[in-house]
Specification:
Pfam families: Inhibitor_I9. Belongs to the protease inhibitor I9 family. By secondary structure, the chain is an alpha+beta fold. It has one domain: Peptidase S8 propeptide/proteinase inhibitor I9 (Alpha-Beta Plaits, 2-Layer Sandwich). The chain contains one helix and four strands. Strands 2-3-1-4 form a four-stranded antiparallel sheet, covered by helices on one side. A hairpin with a 4-residue loop joins strand 2 and strand 3. It starts with a strand and ends in a 7-residue tail after the last strand.
């Protein structure tokens, strides 16, 4: 399963963050890591299920977790 990074909009209530986590696990995904200082998390989820997060108005972005290199 691909890994993604999700960031919440500032001031997102904890209940909405919990609902997004539930959506991920209900769709067969797994939370990989929490980033509380950044207001986000990483998760594994089948690519065809990622669109279920698009309608959440509290999510700022969902992006593939890719390796970044500095040259």
């Amino acid at each position: 399963m691909p890994t993604y990074i999700l960031t919440f909009k500032p001031d997102t209530p904890q209940s909405e963050k919990d609902a997004a986590r539930k959506t991920i696990t209900d769709q067969g995904g797994k939370i990989v890591h929490e980033y509380p200082l950044l207001g986000g998390l990483s998760f594994d989820l089948p690519a065809d299920a990622v669109s279920t997060l698009d309608s959440n108005p509290h999510i700022q972005a969902v992006e593939p977790d890719i390796e970044v290199k500095v040259q």
